[in-house]
Write a structure and sequence with these properties.
Layout (H helix, E strand, L loop, with lengths): L2 E2 L7 H12 L3 H13 L3 H25 L9 H6 L1 H16 L1 H13 L14 E4 L2 E4 L1 H20 L1 H29 L19 H10 L2 H5 L3 H5 L7 H30 L17 H8 L3 H35 L18 H17 L3 H16 L1 H12 L12 H18 L4 H10 L2 H10 L5 H6 L2 H16 L14 H20 L4 H12 L4 E2 L6 H6 L3
Antiparallel strand pairs: 1-4, 2-3
């Protein structure tokens, strides 16, 4: 473990802008359209519900980030509180959720490119096709997306400072454009009658289940995932006890205002003649740009087509950096080959980890060929990665009360319980069979963990296993409830609608308390305590890592 003494001089407002810039990514380009497809005008409520749930979850991670200010920290907290197996599952889920963002950003750019309206760009229409209501990139579209992924890769592979120098301008650009888009659309064309049309046609009525599903898989969870940036920078905050909650809460609330404005603008701007089959039948490759073109807002269309490359590319490049740090952190957990902990002596970059992430990015790109499909996968993986935060933070208050906590969240016992229950509900709302498929994806990596446990002679394996039974049992149980749940959420209707939500909440409560009681005083906690006493002002970063990259390497 290497230390770099980074001064704690990041102010609250700067920290909040970091979070806001991370939250506003490609999600705004497609989220309003995808949420409207699922919930119609109820999509407005979906964004508000999603913001509240993410806020609860984010605050539990804020305390953890201030306690353990280290690179790749999101894959380490479960390891601190429950041992290596919980740490591995949580780290794997978080890594899957983040590494798959790289290809989805490339797909976002190409999907917008597919609707370029200029005569010389007619060939771009062949990049994206819609068949039976399902849109995906063509082989040519995939090829261009693959090139973009390579661009993100080499921006970080050769120069960690290149993107960092342009990051401020990119952040400002991608904050201004969404706000301008929402205002311009509402001032140019607004059809109040659209708010009376249901997702599948007919008269709109509030459909709670559709709204909840939209929260889980339409890109809302995906869009808010950038709250991690202020958490990961907690160790560099001037006054973490005040600035971190200000940054987390402020960035989520401001982003919510932007997203709700965009959703309202989208719902009102769509020409009514496009809604004969309801919102579910609305198939756009580049929603806001196509609306701008239809309304003769040519200046805005050009701005949007430009932003469709700037915002996703900025996010893709930063996530290429952070996923490499996550692989580095997982190697430190002892669950990956040592080569992935190797840092390039000149550039300070974990290059072998970057190559691994590049390969996995291509796998996701070619198996999930549309933004909506891959965003749903990312959302569910993200939800699973959130599960350990509320449990870990409460467990560490019990098992390591003496650890320095620059930030101590008031009312945490209630807040953490609600965060875990909400995360469990989110997982259920994602609908069967998607819930089962992503939970299976969490399980397939376990042989890798067992292999490295065997190499260490199964050191402390019984203790690690005992600390993880709650999570091992949780995943198949929630999958089973999803399978047996109401048809409203894709299940087999053995548990009627309404009762299924109650059952999920009850099981979430049980597993939450089981998880807290399973935590133990792990060796990594004692190691962290020793490091903190030896280097009280240090922020843990990879050996040789460039500090500017550490500051900006977040979505």
């Amino acid at each position: 473990m290497s230390h770099s003494a980074i001064r704690r001089d990041v102010g609250a407002f700067a920290l909040m802008l970091t979070g806001l810039g991370s939250i506003i990514g490609s999600g705004w380009l497609f989220g309003a359209w995808h949420a409207a497809q699922l919930a119609g005008p109820g999509a407005i409520y979906a964004w508000i519900i999603g913001a509240v749930i993410i806020l609860f979850i984010a605050l539990t991670y804020a305390e953890l980030g201030a306690m353990f200010p280290e690179s790749g920290g999101m894959v380490r907290y479960g390891h601190y509180s429950h041992g290596s197996l919980v740490g591995f599952i949580a780290g794997w889920a978080n890594w899957i959720a983040i590494v798959s963002v790289i290809p989805v950003e490339a797909e976002a750019s190409v999907q917008y490119m597919a609707s370029w309206p200029w005569d010389w760009a007619k060939w771009t229409q062949s990049l994206y096709v819609v068949t039976e209501g399902h849109g995906e990139l063509t082989p040519w579209g995939l090829a261009i997306a693959a090139v973009l992924v390579l661009v993100y890769f080499f921006l970080n592979f050769w120069s960690v400072k290149l993107f960092a120098k342009s990051n401020t301008a990119i952040t400002i650009f991608k904050l201004v454009v969404p706000a301008a888009t929402a205002i311009a659309l509402m001032m140019t064309s607004f059809h109040w009658e659209n708010f009376k049309i249901g997702a599948h046609g007919g008269t709109h009525a509030i459909n709670i289940s559709s709204i909840l599903t939209a929260v889980a898989i339409s890109g809302i969870v995906f869009s808010f995932n950038g709250f991690q940036s202020p958490v990961n920078l907690a160790g560099e905050a001037r006054n973490p006890g005040r600035s971190v909650p200000f940054a987390v809460i402020g960035s989520i609330l401001l982003a919510t205002v932007v997203y709700v404005l965009l959703q309202v603008a989208f719902l009102g701007a769509v020409p009514p003649e496009h809604l004969h089959e309801g919102w579910a039948g609305l198939n756009y490759s580049s929603p806001f740009a196509q609306l701008a073109t239809a309304l003769a807002l040519n200046w805005m269309a050009i701005l949007l087509y430009a932003d469709a490359f700037v915002s996703p590319s900025g996010t893709g490049a930063t996530y290429t950096a952070t996923t490499a740090r996550m692989i580095y952190a997982m190697e430190r957990n002892g669950s990956l080959p040592k080569i992935f902990g190797h840092i390039h002596p000149r550039f300070g970059i974990p290059r072998p980890a970057m190559w691994l992430n590049l390969a996995v990015s291509f796998v996701f790109l070619f198996f999930f060929r549309g933004w909506g499909t891959l965003a749903a996968v990312i959302s569910v993986a993200t939800i699973i990665s959130y599960l350990t935060g509320p449990v870990s933070v409460m467990t560490l208050r019990r098992t390591a009360p003496e650890l320095k906590r620059p930030l101590r969240i008031p009312g945490l016992p209630i807040l953490a319980a609600l965060a875990f229950i909400f995360a469990t509900e989110l997982l259920y709302w994602a609908k069967w069979p998607l819930t089962g498929e992503i939970i299976l994806l969490m399980v397939v990596a376990l042989p890798l963990y067992f292999y490295y446990q065997a190499k260490t002679g199964w050191q402390d394996f019984a203790r690690n296993l005992k600390g993880s039974w709650w999570l091992i049992v949780y995943l198949p149980v929630i999958a089973a409830i999803s399978w047996a749940g109401s048809a409203t959420f894709g299940g087999h209707d053995y548990i009627p609608y309404g009762w299924d939500l109650l059952v999920v909440a009850i099981f979430g409560t049980v597993f939450y308390f089981w998880g807290i009681s399973s935590g133990w005083r792990t060796p990594t906690v004692d190691a962290a305590r020793f490091e903190a006493s030896e280097h009280p002002d240090a922020v843990l970063v990879p050996p040789g890592a460039d500090q500017t990259q550490h500051m900006t390497g977040h979505r």
